[in-house]
Write a structure and sequence with these properties.
By secondary structure, the chain is an all-alpha fold. It has a single domain, classed as Four Helix Bundle (Hemerythrin (Met), subunit A) (Up-down Bundle), CATH 1.20.120. It is built from 8 helices and no strands. α7 runs antiparallel to α8. The protein starts with a helix and ends in a 9-residue tail after the last helix.
Length: 251
C-alpha cells in the first residue's frame, strides 16, 4: 500500500474514533495531576499565585478554542463543518467564506486550543509538549483523509480554495465575510456539551488536586460555572430531543 493510501486509511479510521483522543488526554493528565498534588516540588508551578495564573491562562486558552468552534459552526450550513456521521465524511457544499477563508480546518484548531488548556493545567512541560506532538500526528492524518474526500468531491473548486488558504495556522488578511448569517440555534444544538465538558474537567482537576493536598479552599467560581453549564446542557439536551425549538431550515 502506498504511503498516501496508508495515510488516508489511517485518517479515516482516526476520524471515526476521534472522540477518544480527549479521553486519553484526560486519563494521562489526571495521573500527572495526582503526581503534582503529591509531589509539587517536581513540577513547574510551586506556589499559589503562579498556580492561579496558570489556571486562568489554561481556561482562557480553552475558551478561545471553544469560541472558534462556536463561530465556525454558527456560520455554516447543514451537513458541513460538523461532527458528521458514523458512516464517515459528509459535505453537501464546500465552506470557503468566513473563518474558512483564513484557515481550512478551524474546528480542529478549536479542538487543539480547547484541549491544550487542560494539558497546560498539569504544569508539566513535557506532557504539554507530548500533547502537541500527539495532536499533530493524530489530526494530520484526519485532515489528510478529509481533504482527500473534499478534493474528490469538489475537484478544482476545492483545489483553488486550498491553494490560497493555510491548513491550520490562520492567515487573517484573507478573510471574507461569511455567506450564511450566524445561527445561535445551530450553535446551541451542536455545541451544547463543549462548554460544560470544559468546566467539568477544570472543576475536576481543581477539586481532585486540592483533595489530595488536603486543601479545602476550592474554586467556587469555577464550581458555579460548572453547575450552570451542566444545567444549561440538560435544558438544551431536552429541547433538542423532545422539541423542535432548536431546529432551523438548512442549518
Amino acid at each position: 500500500m502506498s504511503l498516501k493510501k496508508e495515510l488516508e486509511k489511517q485518517g479515516n479510521w482516526l476520524f471515526k474514533y476521534r472522540s477518544f483522543l480527549p479521553l486519553a488526554i484526560v486519563f494521562i493528565g489526571t495521573l500527572i495531576h495526582v503526581q503534582a498534588a503529591i509531589n509539587p516540588d517536581s513540577f513547574l508551578v510551586k506556589n499559589v499565585s503562579s498556580n492561579t495564573l496558570l489556571e486562568i491562562t489554561a481556561i482562557c486558552t480553552s475558551l478561545v478554542g471553544f469560541l472558534i468552534r462556536v463561530y465556525t459552526v454558527g456560520h455554516t450550513p447543514k451537513n458541513t463543518s460538523g461532527r458528521n456521521t458514523k458512516r464517515g465524511q459528509v459535505a453537501e457544499s464546500l465552506n470557503t467564506t468566513g473563518i474558512y477563508s483564513i484557515v481550512r480546518h478551524p474546528l480542529y484548531l478549536g479542538n487543539f486550543l480547547m484541549w491544550l488548556g487542560p494539558a497546560m493545567l498539569t504544569a508539566n512541560f513535557w506532557f504539554t509538549v507530548s500533547f502537541v506532538f500527539l495532536f499533530w500526528l493524530y489530526y494530520e492524518r484526519i485532515m489528510y483523509a478529509e481533504e482527500k474526500f473534499l478534493q474528490q468531491k469538489f475537484g478544482k473548486t476545492y483545489a483553488d480554495w486550498a491553494d490560497g488558504v493555510p491548513a491550520f495556522l490562520p492567515a487573517i488578511t484573507t478573510f471574507r465575510k461569511p455567506v450564511y448569517p450566524f445561527s445561535w440555534k445551530k450553535v446551541l444544538k451542536k455545541e451544547k456539551n463543549g462548554l460544560f465538558a470544559l468546566f467539568l474537567l477544570f472543576c475536576f482537576f481543581d477539586i481532585f488536586g486540592k483533595y489530595l493536598r488536603q486543601d479545602s479552599n476550592y474554586n467556587y467560581f469555577l464550581l458555579t460555572l460548572c453547575l450552570f453549564t451542566g444545567l444549561l446542557y440538560m435544558v438544551l439536551k431536552y429541547l433538542k430531543t423532545h422539541t423542535n425549538r432548536l431546529d432551523e431550515v438548512d442549518r
